[in-house]
């Protein structure tokens, strides 16, 4: 039986997934029998046009007493139904990982909205997904009163209870400390994260709800308590408006999934400088066509990765590709390699080093995009990247005007 409860399912490309906290369930999000946080988002045209909405529903209760001591063995071995118990947050994260991998794999973009302990489960799950997979489809994480450093009430309760979840939630517990260290030390790209805390929250205070890595622009305070923060009355409630804005910002800022596309118009880019440089160098027509396709896919990629973070990553990658070109160009000049062989050698070198020196934190980049980045660098009216020592600005301009006869 799936642990995912659907609020709206219309086979959209993106999903909003709610994850409740300790002693919660679907009613975590309910203002009343009719109004719930997930339902409000599912009928909001600004959100529903692009997102399906679902809830991850796991077992959690304060008590772990399921049967009296009398006849307990008989009950355990005769009961056909599973006996649910409170699991540690790490194990619930494993269950969430399974649900996303098995039942939600069709979504290329998922934003998680988590309340209280659900946020710790979600962070653990996000790290597992990043560590185990080349590319994660979790693009956003919205934290609602999540005890990133533990909760005071849990610390008190854990002294008199063996509840695994209360132990994990306790202030400075081993579980929260390990989780925070993994999150802070993660070298791969984490999803865009936003933090919301309640000014009247008596369970998770501001210091715990806003971890060390949070920034002022990524966090807000709302006039709510620990429970009311996830139960907006309507679409004008401050916490609802704030979360909606966060969803829209994340959806806009997060990189889109990119696919390799074929160039439909063979005449496209005919007048681009990188093509003119190839013509001057007498590069074979088939190689030039391939270069156009590489360039086309690199342009698609550049239009998707537009954040400041992306620009930094791409800047490093462009530098590495330029270094590969320069090293091969030295060989080209020294050994008088034919231009066709030279560009083929550069493309082959990029393919060989794609998963080593050209490895990027942007995991959706394929070799095709990286080859295209070479031609992006060459698409300038200068001599930075050429395929013949005889190429000059004058010959390029003559060719653009139709007055160059070639070699």
UniProtKB/TrEMBL annotation:
Segments forming domain ABC-three component systems C-terminal: 265-389
Gene3D superfamilies the UniProt entry points to: alpha/beta hydrolase (3.40.50.1820)
Localization: Endoplasmic reticulum; Membrane
Domain DUF676, residue spans: 10-155
Keywords from the UniProt entry: Endoplasmic reticulum, Hydrolase, Membrane
InterPro entries (UniProt xref): AB_hydrolase_fold (IPR029058), ABC-3C_CTD8 (IPR046912), DUF676_lipase-like (IPR007751), SERAC1 (IPR052374)
GO molecular function: hydrolase activity
Pfam families linked: CTD8 (PF20284), DUF676 (PF05057)
Coiled coil (UniProt feature): none
Major localization class: endoplasmic reticulum
Protein's name in the database: Alpha/beta hydrolase
Natural source organism: Scandinavium hiltneri
């Amino acid at each position: 039986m799936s642990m995912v409860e659907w609020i709206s399912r219309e086979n959209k490309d993106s999903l909003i997934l709610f994850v409740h906290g300790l002693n919660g369930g679907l009613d975590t999000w309910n203002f009343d029998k009719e109004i719930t946080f997930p339902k409000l988002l599912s009928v909001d045209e600004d959100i529903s046009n692009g997102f399906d909405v679902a809830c991850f529903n796991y077992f959690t209760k304060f008590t772990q007493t399921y049967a009296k001591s009398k006849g307990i063995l008989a009950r355990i071995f005769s009961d056909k139904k599973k006996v649910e118990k409170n699991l540690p947050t790490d194990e619930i994260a494993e269950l969430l990982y399974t649900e996303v991998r098995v039942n939600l794999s069709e979504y290329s973009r998922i934003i998680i909205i988590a309340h209280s302990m659900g946020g710790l489960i979600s962070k653990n799950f996000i790290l597992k997904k990043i560590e185990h997979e080349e590319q994660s489809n979790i693009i956003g994480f919205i934290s609602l009163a999540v005890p990133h450093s533990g909760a005071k009430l849990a610390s008190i309760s854990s002294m008199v209870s063996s509840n695994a979840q209360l132990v994990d939630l306790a202030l400075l517990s081993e579980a929260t400390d390990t989780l925070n260290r993994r999150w802070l030390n993660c070298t791969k790209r984490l999803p865009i994260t936003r933090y919301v805390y309640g000014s009247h929250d008596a369970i998770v205070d501001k210091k715990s709800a806003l971890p060390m890595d949070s920034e002022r622009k990524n966090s807000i305070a709302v006039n709510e308590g620990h429970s009311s923060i996830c139960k907006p009355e309507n679409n004008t409630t401050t916490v609802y408006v704030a979360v909606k804005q966060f969803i829209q910002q994340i959806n806009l800022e997060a990189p889109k999934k990119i696919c390799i596309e074929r160039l439909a118009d063979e005449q496209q880019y005919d007048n681009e400088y990188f093509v003119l440089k190839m013509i001057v160098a007498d590069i074979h027509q088939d190689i030039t066509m391939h270069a156009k396709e590489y360039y086309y896919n690199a342009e698609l990629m550049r239009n998707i990765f537009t954040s400041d973070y992306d620009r930094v990553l791409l800047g490093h990658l462009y530098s590495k590709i330029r270094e590969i070109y320069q090293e091969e160009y030295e060989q080209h000049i020294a050994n008088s390699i034919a231009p066709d062989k030279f560009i083929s050698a550069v493309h082959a070198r990029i393919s060989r080093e794609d998963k080593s020196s050209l490895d990027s934190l942007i995991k959706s980049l394929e070799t095709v995009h990286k080859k295209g980045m070479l031609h992006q660098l060459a698409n300038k009216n200068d001599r930075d990247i050429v395929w013949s020592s005889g190429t000059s600005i004058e010959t390029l301009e003559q060719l653009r005007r139709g007055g160059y006869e070639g070699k």
